[in-house]
Amino acid sequence: MSLPAARLFGVTGPEAPWRTAPVFVDAPVERAYILVPPGTAATWDVPDTSCLGRGFWISVANPVERRQPDCARWHTPPTAHPALADPAALRAALTARTTP
Fold first, then answer.
1. Beta-carbon-side half-sphere exposure of residue 66 (alpha carbons within 13 Å)
2. Beta-carbon neighbour count of residue 7 at 10 Å?
């Protein structure tokens, strides 16, 4: 799942995705990526986000390396939260943030 980093970090509280799932950030393009289960792209419909499905590849550093590159780096590595993000909880957190 890809979205603007600012939008991801605008979600606060216990429902914040980086508190429960692996997240990495590509700072030069200000994008954040949350790891979600396969098949999520088929039903994903949250505005200003995109769920990358089949045919997409992402390159990110090994999460156990102490030094991370300047490009895509782990914000919350899978070693900290090995479970993928729950799509329903992620949708609720992101839409609650944008609902007045």
1. 0
2. 17
50 close to 3: Cβ distance less than 8 angstroms: yes
96/81 Cα distance (integer angstroms) = 23
Across the chain, which has 100 residues, the per-10-residue mean pLDDT values are: 90 77 89 93 93 84 74 84 89 73
Size (the chain), residues: 100
The Cα angle at residue 91 between residues 89 and 93, in degrees rounded to 5: 70
- Are 91 and 46 spatial neighbours (Cβ–Cβ below 8 Å)? yes
Check: CB of residue 3 under 8 Å from CB of residue 87: no
Backbone phi and psi for residue 50, each to the nearest 5 degrees, phi listed first: -140, 140
pLDDT in the model for residue 9: 84
**Rounded to whole angstroms, how far apart are CA atoms 35 and 50?**
12
pLDDT at 61: 77
Residue type, 61: A
